[in-house]
Amino acid sequence: SIPDLIPALTTAEQRAATSLKWRTHEKLLQKYACLPHIISSDQIYYRFLHRMLTIILTNNVLPVQKAAARTLCVYLRYNRKQEQRHEVIQKLIERKSYWNRLRFLDTCEFIMELFSKSFFCKYFFLPVLELTHDPVANVRYCTKSEYLLFFCRMKLCYLLPKVKSTLKIPTDKHLLQQLELCIRKLLCQEKDKDVLTIVKRTVLELDRMEISVDAFQKRFYENDLLDQEKERQEHLLLEMEQLEKEKQQNEGRSTSINDKMFEKKRRDSKTSSVLAKSITLSVPGSSSGTSAGKEDKKSKLVRSQSFSTQALHPKYSNIDKC
């Protein structure tokens, strides 16, 4: 209802980004997470969502990046169009630099927090495991990019227990096998001592973890209820999107039917007028006949008047004679 709200919010974010006060920028991005409750998902997608993505990929301040990543995940959570969601997910997965890989792992943490387990397993589980295939040289003799990759490997090892907690047996059995293969590969091929110690700790923690089964268990009852609620909301968003598409299709059909009916009526009116004209032209003595009939009547009147005068004239002459 306020037309100046979106331009004011975008200018405020640009001013905060250009200023040196990164804490103000961080708080502003955190507050922008409430926008899905105020404006539509299309407005958020075209005016704010891509801006959050550019902040994640280009900004140098880590707290600002994390705030933008969390707000982006909130926007993705409440987005109603599946095509837009897929586009954003693809942009998150396409990580070119090692710095973007670190930000991708931060984003995955927020996705595990906000989305259901099935959503994370469907879109982000295998891309996270692909990061284990990156080779890491010795940190003491490496370049800047390799140094960032080293931190990415450490962060990935710390994140693996959370990744395992998203699995459900027996539905995600193949994903569990992929996870075990990646851990074995890390144990066999890792050269750096620091990373290797972290990997061993992670393996011990993963062994202690218990994966939730599809059927309810008392230990995971509350978590399973929360996850089911998230999954139900995601399905509701998909159903709403489908209903909107069907509504638009029905509206398009109704307008096309109305146009067809209007065109048919117009054609019928044209054909009726043409038929009426042709009928009047085809009937003999319609226009010329009426004029001829009028002339006949006039001539008859003239004849009757002449006959009456001819009959009266001899009488009048006799009267005059008398």
Automatic annotation (TrEMBL):
Region (Disordered): 244-322
Top-level taxon of the source organism: Eukaryota
InterPro entries: ARM-like (IPR011989), ARM-type_fold (IPR016024), PPP4R4 (IPR039918)
One GO cellular component term: protein serine/threonine phosphatase complex
Biased composition (Basic and acidic residues): 260-270
Positions with biased composition (Polar residues): 271-291, 302-311
Gene3D superfamilies given in the database record: Leucine-rich Repeat Variant
Signal peptide region: none
Any one GO molecular function term: protein phosphatase regulator activity
Protein name, entry field: PP4R4 phosphatase
Protein source organism: Zapornia atra (Henderson crake)
Gene: Ppp4r4
